[in-house]
Structure formats: C-alpha cells, structure tokens
Design goal:
Layout: H1 5-27, H2 30-51, H3 62-70, E1 77-83, E2 93-97, E3 100-105, E4 109-115, E5 118-126, E6 129-130, E7 134-138, E8 142-151, E9 154-159, H4 165-169, E10 174-175
Parallel strand pairs: 1-8, 4-10
Antiparallel strand pairs: 1-4, 2-3, 2-5, 5-6, 5-7, 8-9
Transmembrane segments: 7-24, 30-51
Protein name: NfeD-like C-terminal domain-containing protein
Keywords: Membrane, Transmembrane, Transmembrane helix
Length: 191
Amino acid sequence: MLKSKPVIILLAIVGAVVGAYVGVNILTSGLAQVAAIALFGFIGYLIYNGLRRNRSVEKLSDAERARVLGDTPATGGRVIVYREGFVAKLSGFDILIDGVPHAQLKSPQSVVVPVVPGEHQLVAKVAGKGQPPFGFTVGNAETVVIRIGMGIAGCEISRDDNPRIKSKLGTIPMVRADTAATEPSGIGTAA
C-alpha cells in the first residue's frame, strides 16, 4: 500500500487524465452512450438495493458514550460491537447475539449489549444474509470487544483485545441497542 501522499496524488491525476482521454474517445460513438446509461442505471440499482434495508438508529451523545466506556459492569457482562472500514460503509449490518437482534451498524459505529456470563454467538446480517456465527465467551463483570469489518468474502468478525481499544472506541459513534434488555447504566434500554 502506498503511504506517500504526493505519489497517491500524482497517480490520481494521471489516472484522471488517462480516464478522460479514453472516455472522450469512447463516448463519440452512439453505442457507448447507450452502454453508459445502462451502466449508470445498473449502478444506481445496486446502490438502492444495498441501502434499502437500512433503518434509522438513535445515536448516543458524546457524554453518554464516554460514561458507557468508563463504566465496568458490576454483575453480568457486556459486549461492545464496533464496525469499521470503507467497504459497504453505508450498508447497515444487523447485529444478532444468540439469535436476538440488537442493532444495525453502519461504518463507523458501535453498540453496547448487556449479556449474561457464558458462551454466546454473534451473527452479522448483511442485506438480509447471515454470515457464519462467531462464538465468544463473556465472564462475570467482563467487557468483550468485537470488531466487524467487510472483506471480499463478507463480514470479518474478530475479538479485539487491544489494550488501547477504549481510546479508539471513544472516537466511534455509538448507537443505542434496540432490545429492551437493560443494564444498570441504562444503555440497553430501547429507544
């Protein structure tokens, strides 16, 4: 991956010039214009189809998010699920834990879900299609952080045990969980 901004800018300019030259030559024929209209229509359909399942979610304020990240559950456990990445970032992923829907996350967003200690299964549904379940264990008074990204094969789900994760989560918008499950801090209450 290129890390130098001048190289990236230069490649973008060269790509734009070459693309414009090729595009002008192709568009001089009538068939190319019909193909371009069909292509734009198809791309529009794909975008509409990918975004039509999105629903509105309530975001927590910065103060609420900071309070949640600062708290540790006294009893029970909780899961913080966050999504990041650019691929399909506007398409909402439905987050199910043990078969119960808890939130829909776009990128970047996160949600806190209170759970009972023990083994659990997380599924992220993309466009109504579920991915293989991701198993994890939560201990009493423990917070488990799970990262969701989008790759070529679909959702990439992994446990994030990075010690600096709280500072990262402090910058990611947090949504309120959908379910009526409650936790002493009230984060799991339905909106």
